Amino acid sequence: MDATSPLPTRLGVVAAGGSIPVAVCDAAQRNGIEVHVAAIKGVADSDIERFPHSWVRLGELGGLLNVLKSAKCKDIVIVGAIKRPDLWSVGVDFGFIWHLPTILSLTRGGDDSLLKRVVKFFEGQGFRVRGAHEIAPELLAPSGPFGRISPAEEHDHDIRRGFALLDALSPFDVGQGAVLSRGHVLAVEAAEGPDEMLKRCEALQQWGGKKRSGVLIKAPKSDQELRVDMPVIGPRTVEFAANAGLAGIAVASRRVMIASQAEMIALADRHEIFIAGVDI
Description:
The chain is an alpha/beta fold. It has 2 domains: about 10-135, Rossmann fold; about 140-280, Cytidine Deaminase, domain 2. It contains 11 helices and 13 strands. The longest helix is centred in the middle third of the chain and has 14 residues, at about 110-125.
């Protein structure tokens, strides 16, 4: 969907975990958009109940479609954090069984190919899939440093090398993050996710002494489906980066979303690490 398309008057929000779904609903209401949330039970934040909502289990595909159609939501946003589930442990309904061949096809391949098929599935059901950043552009990372700490000249090489690395890995659908320190690639995000990647870096950084070094790089893959899978950083990212002894975080400006921005910046300032948006 072109980000310049007119905003809808009514929006369905399929809400998984984290603060971004709530931020999208708040932004929609500020813009006069009526929302109805299909909140994933056991995953979505309880704060989502501030908005018109229905709770559905992850396996209730028929129930999810009925919620969105009953609320007359032609436009939808699919947003929030969720782990790839075990298909047979999610409380399936008849709609899940009805669409089982399609669902099984979704599980093949990496995350990016999966999410592209998810978008295609909902479009096939008559919905228009919008990106969270279309509804709430203020969530997008700006260019430049966010807090009082800026990257030093010594970090420039790691930042440039990190973005080049992620770009080169894009065809392999590997991940959205990497950690580099003094020119060394410490870690690349794979199926374990960014938190576990940063945990691995804690031991690897011990040889560096007490001074913080290294940068977490976050950027989408070159052909990533940004409507449903734009990279996100937030306070949790800062905590893990600080624990790993990193000097900072560099993200692709306007192509990464920021969760709980004020809290994240305050935390980064407290740990004395930088966060910066980079134009790539």
